[in-house]
Specification:
This protein has about 425 residues and is an alpha+beta fold. It is built from 17 helices and seven strands. It folds into three domains: about 80 residues, Integrase, DNA-binding domain (Double Stranded RNA Binding Domain), CATH 3.30.160; about 100 residues, Tyrosine recombinase, N-terminal domain (DNA polymerase, domain 1), CATH 1.10.150; about 200 residues, hpI Integrase, Chain A (Orthogonal Bundle). α8 crosses α12.
């Protein structure tokens, strides 16, 4: 194809919008309004590629006819060598923290134990890690991570440490995909522990727990309410369950003949199925809820098919509780303190009631055959205590006064539930 079809004189006289060829792929586009831009077109197979070469006689870097031809020659030379001029013009890919974060969250979608777990991860990274979102993941330094953590480190240390751990997971994801070659600046040991206050000095303590001496009064107050939330709190207290486990309980999980509630592994913190022995009152609550149920949920939250909310349960607890700072999770602590202070139940039995892993595999296998019945005894005694029964007080060694039943006087002050 002929070249050098244009000249500076002709270009200056062009006013009609259109495309004018200089030859062998070099063109000048004249737009309505008079602006002119150079571009080069080439084909590889069925693929047509257009490369812009700059504007003629305009802007801060005007491209003359001679310079446009020089650029076109350079492109032709690369094509002759089998190179791709378009690929070389692309800027290097910059992978940001947000890109890695989105990919990691998508990759972990099948691992979430429940919606709450997923929401916690997403909220922490999308909101608290926002200062890192636009940064190239390959260039994030320890100072960037520290600046992201500091606003939360003193006010909410537990959340801040989870944030740090999740930032570390995102950057580990980038390292695994070779988008970052340096180490992980969110690592705690040997790195951030040198520049941030030690976590143990910032602990706020455990979930606020109601003193077990006040539990009977709280349970009596709950009985005065006919709401679903009150029954859910009562059930949670009697079973020493976590809030999420109780809220999502279904009737199918309750075996009324065996008097057990089997919580599936996916709803347990340890990822293992947990069988809970049910006392008389807990079973009565399940049956009462069955009569008013509109779904398979024991504690349904309404017509939308969702479980009762944690907020509603917390409100019911605090309305009934003498301690207005008490938390739902703290009821597990109340049970554990009572079991340790007022019974002779072995530590292992109390811990198993809380679904805590106790001992090694051999010990767990040995304990499996009789743990349920030992836990049933302890949970029935806890139920009696919660209901304020005098015999329960005597068996538990409570010295609040009152005459002990004759059967109880022959026992030690603490029940041997081992």
């Amino acid at each position: 194809m002929a070249r050098r079809l244009l000249s500076e004189t002709r270009i200056r006289t062009l006013s009609k919008p259109g495309i004018y060829a200089d030859g062998d792929g070099l063109f000048l586009r004249v737009r309505k309004g008079g602006s002119r831009q150079w571009f080069f077109i080439f084909r590889r197979g069925k693929t047509r590629t257009e490369l812009g070469l700059g504007g003629y006689g305009q802007g801060t870097a005007p491209v003359s006819l001679a310079l446009a031809r020089e650029k076109a020659d350079a492109i032709r030379d690369k094509l002759a060598r089998g190179l791709d001029p378009a690929a070389e013009r692309k800027p290097p890919r910059v992978v940001t923290f947000k890109h890695c974060m989105d990919e990691l969250l998508a990759a972990k979608a099948a691992e979430w134990k429940n919606d709450k777990h997923r929401q916690q991860w997403e909220m922490t990274l999308r909101e608290y890690a926002k200062p890192l979102h636009s940064l190239p993941v390959a260039e994030i330094a320890m100072g960037d991570v520290k600046a992201c953590l500091l606003p939360h480190w003193r006010e909410r240390p537990e959340t801040a440490d989870r944030l740090r751990s999740r930032i570390q997971a995102v950057i580990d994801y980038a390292i695994a995909h070779e988008w970052r070659t340096a180490g992980n600046p969110a690592r705690w040991k040997g790195l951030l522990d040198k520049v941030l206050p030690a976590r143990r000095k910032l602990e706020r303590g455990h979930h606020a727990a109601l003193a077990y001496a006040e539990v009977p009064a709280m349970m009596a107050a709950l009985r005065q309410s006919g709401g679903v939330a009150a029954r859910a709190v009562e059930f949670l207290t009697l079973t020493a369950a976590r809030c999420g486990e109780a809220r999502a309980a279904t009737f199918a999980e309750v075996d009324t003949e065996a008097r057990t509630w089997t919580v599936p592994a996916e709803r347990m913190k340890a990822g293992k199925e947990h069988v809970v022995p049910l006392c008389d009152r807990a079973l009565a609550i399940v049956e009462a809820m069955r009569q008013r149920a509109t779904s398979q949920l024991v504690f349904g939250g309404g017509v939308d098919g969702r479980p009762i909310s944690e907020t509603a349960m917390t409100k019911a607890l605090r309305l009934a509780s003498p301690d207005k700072a008490a938390t739902l999770h703290g009821m597990r602590s109340a049970f554990r303190d009572w079991a340790g202070d007022k019974t002779d139940a072995p530590r292992e039995t109390a811990e198993l009631c809380l679904a805590h892993t106790v001992g090694n595999r051999v010990e767990q296998a040995y304990r499996r055959s009789d743990a349920l019945e030992k836990r049933r005894e302890l949970m029935q005694a806890w139920s009696a205590y919660c209901e304020g029964e005098r015999i329960a007080s005597a068996l538990a060694g409570d010295s609040r006064g009152g005459e002990k039943p004759a059967s109880a006087t022959r026992k030690r002050q603490k029940t041997d539930l081992g």
